[in-house]
């Protein structure tokens, strides 16, 4: 060895090395101290902060959506309930790439490409920790398909939720409305805490107007979850007990609607485009409210496909249009009893006084002929006969004598030109014209000729079937007026108590002489008797009906010889058929308005439908056999 | 009295017998005891950290057996052999690293493994010992502190394998290997001024290094500086780890009761982030206990190094001690959020055989160097 030469070096190096070791030891103890200080900071000083974060990590608050209130008809039949459905849900905070995840769901055919933009918007405007339904109702096959791919979709889950179900499907859909998936638009109007966990909201009809009553109050349940967001029942060996606040179900609704009568009304309307409104004149209860064609509300609750929706939207028969509330049409001759009422009230006619009808009417100082539907006229008619035979010339003259202002006055009292205030949204007020209205709208003066045609329910005058039914109800009760209503009672979900809603009285229509009511009702009864325009179709009724037929012109043929154009015209240009009635005439229980779009003649087409409904409601004859599609024969004169 | 004396002498006899066996096997009792306590503590934590998975736990026990066997074998190799083999081991290591770069197997996007048919082998692991051995070997006959020329040569010895490993890419191991080589140079008496200027140059080199870094490496550093920037992505590890530690408090939530660990909010809970499990379940005290045990291990190694009789043994032993510290510091620093996330396991505790075998192999070499001293004056 090189011992002799290296001894000094050896010790020098030894000292150097020990010095380095000590230097390193000091350094590493300081660095260890740094880690220790960091741990002290995290665990002792910031402990409560991190303890809370850790708690937030593992505890998830799951919303408990309330059960939506059930809807019953007047006989206690369920017409809207909740059934379990499998729903595809996404929790935004667990999904790193939302658009990409949605695209992959499209790839496995669980979403349609058209849905993606709307869902993306919805997710962006939602809270990150609340799950959002992507699909409301999955089929068994779709559940299976998702199960195969589930591991690729962190933050997407299948959940069982209650979904709305309408056992009657398309029946009464225009009254009930439907619920649908909550959209980003809906999110702007609702309290999100209340809708946490809810996937549906009332979109239209009763479901929308009674949303706050039906929805209920959401609760929540705290659960422990692992990092994958899966619920765990215990940590280690300990079971977990956390806070729970139960949801409060929404209130149940009891409707005035009688589904048996409703079904009869819909069957009677058959393939026609039209509407029926039937009201109990004594309290405003809407017994039936139908608009055809109809559609299945369940399509919407289960998440309607783009294809189905565009098919409904683009259907030329407009099934989505609620004709009963939103269809404003010329009422035609159904206004004649009301014209007569105005004439009596303002003292311009005597019910007994007769007028000669020769089939044509001209204004003084004018040669323009206003023709009667009956070419040769009705001869000498009093007020009652004029109503019964729907004599146009009588009412041309009456309108001319009354003038538009007085017509406006009486008709407005009967509800024309204003919403009835029924408890579902979307109602339209129709149009009760006046010279002020015309000046405002067209900047033109009112022409006398325009008053003449208002006298037979034509011209600017427009009314909805609901308004007509309401007006008939007012006549039936000699001026008593109730706001039409669908909901008659609410069942409080927490107490189980049924709270009836009082019928809502509106301003009573008072006349100078109450006798005038009887005078016009006498004319309306005559309509259904021999010689009346509705005698044939209503023959065989075991109760007395007061009614009026109407045939409203869609297409003006100008100074035509005869407005009976029956099948000669394209279907969409044919006359609308109308019919208003109440029965029994001496003790009114039901007031009806029937409207058939391009149906032809009111007496032959619309009146039999009303009779079916009367038979069902008054006699319990629920014969749903559809009425034969009566077509007027060409060349035969038809009353208005 | 008689009986007590008998018992005392019996105890003494047993002790001296066991110390004779230790000496015969060239093992160091105090180091083995300290390491044993850390390993047992680690197994205790690991059972909880694997989610009470007995299978994984038994696996680890099996690897531990293999590692202890390696330690035992290496301790028997005379230091002269080790010295002679050093250049061979180092040279082979560099060749294998090149082979990995050319034909290696990828795992998790990094090419680290060499498939030898029977088993997969990680040459970088071998270099954790090979590099400091080579540095010590190079300096064994040279006067210390090393000359500038020596320093340049040493720089090449360290940087070639480091660069190859960093390229795989495995930043964690590259750092550890560079640290191991550097620790030898430091212990050899590198001038403090060179050290300070070295640090300055490194600081200046950061922008250059940034340019050559992989995106995921850049991401880790960005995330380290601001974890909340990417709370569900790269920052997730750091955030969840700090939540786990912080929520543990002084005494922890109790063994197997850490919600962060048991509900898997904490990623890599049984491997790189097991220190956070200790923090969550056993609290500040549990973590400080481990740090203290580590210090005891390091202190014993450094003591053994100071007792070494030649330059090679001294530098090698000292380097093993400092490297062990670097392991512990980088891991605990990363888990507690004072260092960026690099894939370094917690020494003797993390689940995984490779790190355990390498560490105990190092201790085997250490014990060989220490126990084969010529005991002057005994």
Query: How many helices of chain A does DSSP assign?
Result: 23
| Number of DSSP-assigned strands of chain B | 3
CATH topology of the domain at 322-478 and 514-619 in chain A: Beta-lactamase
The H-and-E topology of chain B, N to C, reads as HHHHEEEHHHHHHHHHH
Question: How helix-rich are the residues of chain B, as a percent range?
Answer: over 70%
- The portion of residues assigned to helices of chain A is 25-40%
Give a short account of the largest sheet of chain B: 3 strands, antiparallel
Structural class of chain A: alpha+beta
Name of the CATH class of the domain at 322-478 and 514-619 in chain A: Alpha Beta
Q: Please, could you describe this protein's structure?
A:
The complex is a heterodimer of chains A (640) and B (378). Chain A has a domain at 322-478 and 514-619: Beta-lactamase, CATH 3.40.710. Helices cover 36% and strands 19% of the residues of chain A. Chain A has 23 helices and 26 strands. In chain A, strands 2, 3, 4, 5, 13, 21 and 22 form a seven-stranded mixed β-sheet that branches. In chain A, a hairpin with a 6-residue loop joins β25 (576-583) and β26. In chain A, α3 (98-107) packs antiparallel against α4. Chain A starts with a helix and ends in a 21-residue tail after the last helix. The model of chain A is unreliable at 1-8, 557-566 and 627-635 (pLDDT under 50). Chain B is an all-alpha fold and 378 residues long. Chain B contains 14 helices and three strands. A three-stranded antiparallel β-sheet of chain B has the order 1-2-3, with helices on one face. Chain B is globular and about 55 Å long. The mean pLDDT of chain B is 86. The interface between A and B is large, with 44 and 54 residues.
């Amino acid at each position: 060895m090189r011992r002799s030469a290296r001894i000094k070096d050896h010790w020098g190096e030894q000292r150097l090395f020990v010095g380095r070791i000590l230097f390193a030891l000091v350094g590493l103890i300081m660095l260890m101290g740094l880690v220790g200080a960091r741990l002290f900071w995290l665990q002792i000083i910031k402990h409560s902060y991190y303890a809370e974060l850790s708690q937030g990590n593992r505890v998830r608050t799951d919303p408990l959506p309330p059960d939506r209130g059930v809807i019953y008809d007047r006989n206690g039949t369920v017409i809207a309930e909740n059934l379990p459905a499998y729903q595809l849900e996404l929790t935004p905070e667990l999904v790193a790439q939302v658009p990409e995840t949605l695209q992959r769901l499209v790839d496995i055919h669980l979403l349609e490409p058209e849905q993606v933009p709307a869902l993306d918007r919805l997710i962006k405007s939602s809270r990150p920790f609340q799950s959002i339904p992507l699909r409301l109702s999955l089929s068994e096959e779709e559940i299976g398909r998702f199960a195969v791919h589930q591991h690729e979709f962190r933050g997407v889950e299948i959940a069982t939720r209650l979904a709305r179900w309408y056992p009657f499907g398309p029946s009464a859909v225009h009254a009930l409305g439907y619920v649908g998936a909550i959209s980003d638009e809906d999110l702007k109007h609702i309290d999100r805490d209340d809708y946490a966990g809810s996937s549906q909201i009332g979109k239209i009809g009763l479901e929308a107007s009674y949303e706050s009553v039906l929805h209920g109050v959401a609760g929540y349940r705290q659960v422990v979850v692992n990092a994958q967001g899966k619920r765990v029942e215990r940590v280690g060996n300990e079971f977990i007990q956390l806070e729970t606040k139960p949801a409060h179900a929404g209130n149940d609704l009891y409707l005035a609607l009688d589904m048996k009568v409703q079904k009869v009304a819909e069957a009677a309307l058959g393939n026609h485009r039209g509407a029926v409104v039937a009201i109990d004149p004594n309290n405003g209860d809407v017994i039936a409210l139908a608009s055809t064609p109809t559609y299945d509300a369940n399509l919407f609750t289960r998440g309607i496909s783009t294809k189905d929706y565009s098919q409904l939207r683009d259907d030329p028969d407009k099934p989505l249009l609620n004709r009963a509330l939103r269809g404003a049409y010329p009422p035609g001759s159904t206004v004649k009893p009301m014209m007569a009422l105005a004439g009596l009230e303002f003292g311009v006619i005597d019910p007994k006084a007769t007028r000669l009808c020769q089939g044509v009417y001209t204004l003084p100082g004018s040669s323009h002929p206003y023709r009667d539907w009956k070419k040769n006229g009705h001869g000498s008619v009093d007020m009652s006969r004029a109503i019964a035979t729907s004599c146009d010339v009588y009412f041309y003259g009456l309108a001319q004598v009354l003038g538009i202002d007085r017509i406006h006055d009486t008709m407005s009292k009967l509800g024309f030109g204003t919403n009835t205030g029924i408890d579902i949204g979307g109602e339209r007020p129709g149009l009760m014209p006046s010279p002020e209205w015309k000046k405002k709208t067209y900047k033109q003066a009112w022409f006398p000729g325009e008053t003449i045609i208002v006298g037979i329910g034509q011209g600017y005058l427009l009314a909805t079937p609901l308004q007509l039914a309401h007006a008939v109800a007012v006549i039936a009760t000699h001026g008593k007026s109730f706001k039409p209503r669908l909901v008659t009672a609410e069942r409080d979900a927490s107490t189980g108590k049924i709270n009836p809603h009082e019928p809502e009285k509106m301003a009573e229509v008072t006349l100078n002489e109450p006798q005038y009511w009887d005078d016009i009702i006498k004319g309306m009864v005559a309509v259904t008797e021999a010689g009346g325009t509705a005698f044939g179709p209503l023959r065989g009724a075991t109760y007395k009906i007061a009614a009026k037929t109407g045939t409203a012109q869609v297409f003006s043929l100008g100074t035509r010889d005869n407005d009976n154009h029956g099948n000669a015209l394209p279907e969409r240009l044919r006359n609308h058929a109308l019919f208003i009635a109440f029965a029994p005439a001496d003790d009114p229980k039901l007031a009806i308005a029937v409207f058939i779009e391009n149906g032809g003649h009111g007496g032959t087409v619309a009146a039999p439908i009303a009779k079916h409904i009367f038979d069902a409601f008054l006699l319990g004859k629920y014969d749903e056999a559809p009425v034969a599609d009566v077509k007027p024969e060409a060349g035969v004169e038809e009353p208005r | 009295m008689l009986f007590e004396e008998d018992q005392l002498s019996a105890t003494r006899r047993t002790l001296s017998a066991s110390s004779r066996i230790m000496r015969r096997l060239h093992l160091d009792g105090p180091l083995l005891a300290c390491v044993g306590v850390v390993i047992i503590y680690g197994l205790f934590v690991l059972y909880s950290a694997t989610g009470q998975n007995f299978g994984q736990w038994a696996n680890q026990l099996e690897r531990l057996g293999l590692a202890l066997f390696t330690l035992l074998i290496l301790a028997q190799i005379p230091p002269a052999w080790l010295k002679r083999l050093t250049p061979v081991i180092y040279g082979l290591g560099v060749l294998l690293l090149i082979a990995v770069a050319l034909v290696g197997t990828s795992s998790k996007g990094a090419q680290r493994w060499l498939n030898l048919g029977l088993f997969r082998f990680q040459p970088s692991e071998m270099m954790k010992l090979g590099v400091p051995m080579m540095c010590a070997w190079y300096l064994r006959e040279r006067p210390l502190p090393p000359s500038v020329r020596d320093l340049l040569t040493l720089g090449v010895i360290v940087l070639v394998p480091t660069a190859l490993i960093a390229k795989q890419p495995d930043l964690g191991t590259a750092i550890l290997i560079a640290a191991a080589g550097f620790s030898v140079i430091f212990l050899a008496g590198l001038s403090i001024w060179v050290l300070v200027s070295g640090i300055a140059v490194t600081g200046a080199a950061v922008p250059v290094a940034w340019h050559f870094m992989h995106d995921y490496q850049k991401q880790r550093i960005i995330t380290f500086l601001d974890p909340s920037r990417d709370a569900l992505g790269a920052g997730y590890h750091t955030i969840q780890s700090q939540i786990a530690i912080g929520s543990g408090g002084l005494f922890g939530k109790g063994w197997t009761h850490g919600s962060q660990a048991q509900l898997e909010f904490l990623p890599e809970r049984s491997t790189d982030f097991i220190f956070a499990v200790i923090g969550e379940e056993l609290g500040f005290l549990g973590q400080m206990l481990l740090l203290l045990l580590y210090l005891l291990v390091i202190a014993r190694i450094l003591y053994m190094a100071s007792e070494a009789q030649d330059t090679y043994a001294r530098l090698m032993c000292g380097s093993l001690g400092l490297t062990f510290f670097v392991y512990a510091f980088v891991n605990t620093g990363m888990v507690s959020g004072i260092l960026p996330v690099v894939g370094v396991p917690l020494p003797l505790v993390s689940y995984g055989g490779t790190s355990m075998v390498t560490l105990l192999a190092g201790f085997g070499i250490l014990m060989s160097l220490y126990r084969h001293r010529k005991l002057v004056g005994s």
